[in-house]
Design a protein that fits this description.
The chain has 197 residues and is mostly helical. It contains five helices and four strands.
């Protein structure tokens, strides 16, 4: 029995929501593993990624491809259906890459994550009560991934600090000092800067 393209697009929308739930569940599991910080928690996360998320993603991907194949060319909503299916396939590929890569990267960096979990600052205060330093953090431009957990790094407006909201890693960036190894003595650090006018 031939189905209308609009009905197939409705099915694709259900698959979009399923993909969003998988994405959110994976993110929450990753945060729990990072908060625990133990090698056992990271291994459990990797195993859950293999046995649950990869399996569920393959089922969703197969259903997307099946629905894409059911779209009837020349009928109403065909182009919209194809665009929706291809967008979902791309999104599922990106999520699958994270589901495979992130747990492996975390297990490789287990010692560093355990150290960070021990030194982690207490949970951040509720919104509106953050300290001035954390209020001023913005995402790096261009975006840079944390080498430990894969979350986008944040920096302050003067680029003197890199911080990861995912695993809590922080690094202070020292500005280059004239007269040392970083530059010749006697050189004016303001040389080359354009005066604001």
């Amino acid at each position: 029995m031939k189905r209308e393209n609009f009905a197939i697009i409705s099915d694709l929308e259900i698959l979009r929501r399923a993909l969003s739930r998988l994405e959110e569940g994976f993110r929450l599991e990753k945060e729990e593993a990072l908060a625990d910080g133990s090698a056992e928690a990271l291994e459990r996360f990797r195993e859950k990624s293999r046995t649950h998320y990869q399996l569920e993603l393959s089922i969703v991907r197969r259903d997307i491809q099946r629905n894409e194949g059911l779209l009837v060319p020349g009928e109403e909503w065909f182009e919209e259906g194809i665009a929706s299916a291809r967008d979902l396939l791309l999104r599922s590929d990106q999520l699958l890459a994270r589901v495979i890569g992130t747990p492996n990267r975390l297990v490789r960096n287990a010692a560093l994550i355990a150290e960070l979990a021990c030194n982690r600052r207490p949970p951040s205060p509720p919104p509106g009560s953050m300290n001035d330093e954390e209020e001023d953090l913005v995402q790096t431009d261009p975006p840079v991934e944390c080498p430990v957990c894969g979350t986008w790094l944040m920096t302050d407006r003067d680029f003197t600090l890199l911080a990861c909201p995912g695993c809590g890693a922080r690094e202070t960036l020292e500005p280059e000092q004239p007269g040392g190894e970083d530059g010749p003595a006697g050189e004016d650090p303001a040389d080359g800067l354009i005066a604001e006018g």
